[in-house]
Amino acid sequence: MIYMKNLFFVSVLAGIILSCSCKPRETLVSINTPYGEIVVKLYDSTVKHKENFINLVKSGFYDSLLFHRVIGKFMIQGGDQTSRKAGPGVLLGDGDTNYTIPFEYVPAYLHKRGVLAAARENDDENPLMASSATQFYIVQGKVFTNDELNAVELKVERRTKQYILMNLLKKEGKEDELAAFHRMVDARDTANIRMVIGKYSNAVEAEYLRTKPFKISDEQRRVYTTIGGTPHLDGAYTVFGEVVCGMEVVDKIAAVKTDTNDRPLEDIRMTMKLVKK
To answer: What is the pTM of this model?
Structure first.
């Protein structure tokens, strides 16, 4: 998951991601790194995220910050303001401002390869899925098979039912059972997790069906089996832009060596500026 804490489309579209062509009125931001330049365009439909990102770029907020979390075939993440002066090996990911950005979900904006999205706190602390004001990630992802996408659907279903059960136990005041279930989840004790969910199966299933189960559509499958991405993040994080030039730079950063907290062993600093057309 893309948590702040270190805890949580086919050839034509591919051409859009991999080329530098853009429309005259698009808002572009240049992200300069030791590995080269990444240019992203900001989506107009995610207004609050776009305005906030532009203001931060103009103010120089991102200049000299690090890409502090890097996971190959997944994403590269930056924007922690404490990373500017962080010493080697320091755990990063908690730095943020004193405000968040409301969740702006646009179903058409998938977590395809190359998208720009906002990090956030996990669901327990942030049920409304508000975004970090500063931390962002760029998806590298991978190309999936249909069988792998089926497995993603099952994984998201299991995770969703776990959250539903936790909320149910909390509402009913069953604190001891809730604490025990948290320990099972942390230990990935799947056998006992299934047993507890089965105990409350009727209530969990009813709520799961009410909340529109996660399903990967035919169009999404077309994207993820050709361009690739990270489908399990769809609907849970705000996507507010995409790379139009420099995906090879994202790939280079995603391939660097990291420590056990996914922080690159050698600092990767960034500077940003608006691109004038």
So the answer is: 0.84
